[in-house]
Amino acid sequence: MKNTKIILVIIAVIIVSAVVFFFQNNKPENTTTVPIRIGYQTAWIPQAQLAQILKHTDILEKNGLSGDFKGFNYGGPLNEAALAGEVDVLFVADFPAINLLSKSEKFSIVARLSDFRNGIIVPLESPIKSISDLKGKTLSIPFGSSPHVHALSFIKENELDLKDFNIKNLDITEQINILQKGSPKTWESVDAFATWDPAMAAFEENGKVRILKLFNPVGAIVMSNDFIAQNPVAAKKFLESFIESYFYYAKNQGKADGWFVEESKFSYPQSVIDKSVSLEKNLKADDIKEISIFLNEEQITRLEDLMNEAVNNGLLKQTYDIRSRINQKILGEIRNDKLNFDLDQINTK
């Protein structure tokens, strides 16, 4: 009888242990996710591909986030949405980031977005050979964009007066429509555009564009301070997701480029996309440990210089301490080599 009781106790212990083991290893995943509203630009790469990766894969979900994506033509309207409280994080170029922070203390730059190209372009066969040749002619720019400041600064660097130029506001989609209809000789009533890739690279490749001046700005990830304060873990998880999306892009460029083309409705050849993303070193990474989205000292100094130029050109009322508005502490807590990221486990939607 005693032996029987011992056997029954042993069996009971085994059963309980098995049940506990089963539930520990088969418990449902925590389905609670933190919503995050992501503002991005549909016609600017490579950030558009990174946004598409976050949208079309479960990278965010695996990090406990639920993305609400809001696409914009360029940085100006995106900034307006941020000021209206419609986004928690936004992908913008240098001047839109500077401009937004000058208007509201509710945002901080939390990481580098990308390195990219923008510039001033003219028709391939235009007689305009230098910026001084544009005097008295029409230069169209998306106001509030990165090339807006860079173009005005370039004019002043050449000791020219802005009053001698007919500078008009025209967003990127309108630019593309004019370029598509135009010829290597003329673009309707526009003599030059300040613009960015991939439009710049596309029309350069098809023989309609000559680059008068090339600029190499830096993009920024800007995040709501309220979101950071209320969701510190989610803020960190978003940056981890972004790092992971960069590595995903490095290893799945064709797929990400396809998602970009599908949403933007612009069918760019691969050679154009490759040229447009050529400055971004992360896309050459063979390991996630090689991905870096830190703003370095040289890039921060460039932001300071650009802010000063914006004030000198009347695009900002005054300077401010931009260094105090760059918060890379969250990013500094992330160790890429500790990220539990497996490309083979990423699902697409």
What is the level-2 CATH architecture name of the largest domain?
3-Layer(aba) Sandwich
How many structurally independent domains?
A: 2
CATH topology of the largest domain: D-Maltodextrin-Binding Protein, domain 2
Uncertain segments are 18-30
| Helix-and-strand structural type | alpha/beta
- What is the β-strand count? 10
Listing every helix as H and every strand as E from the N terminus to the C terminus, the arrangement reads HEHHEHEHEEEHEHEHEEHHHHHH
Q: Helix fraction? A: 40-55%
- Please indicate the percent range of residues in DSSP E strands (runs of 2 or more): 15-25%
Roughly what is the average pLDDT, rounded to an integer?
91
Sum up the overall morphology in one term: globular
- If you compute it from the alpha carbons, what radius of gyration comes out, rounded to the nearest whole angstrom? 25 Å
CATH level 1 class label of the largest domain:
Alpha Beta
CATH homologous superfamily grouping of the largest domain: Periplasmic binding protein-like II
Keywords: Membrane, Transmembrane, Transmembrane helix
Transmembrane segments: 6-23
Pfam families: Phosphonate-bd (PF12974)
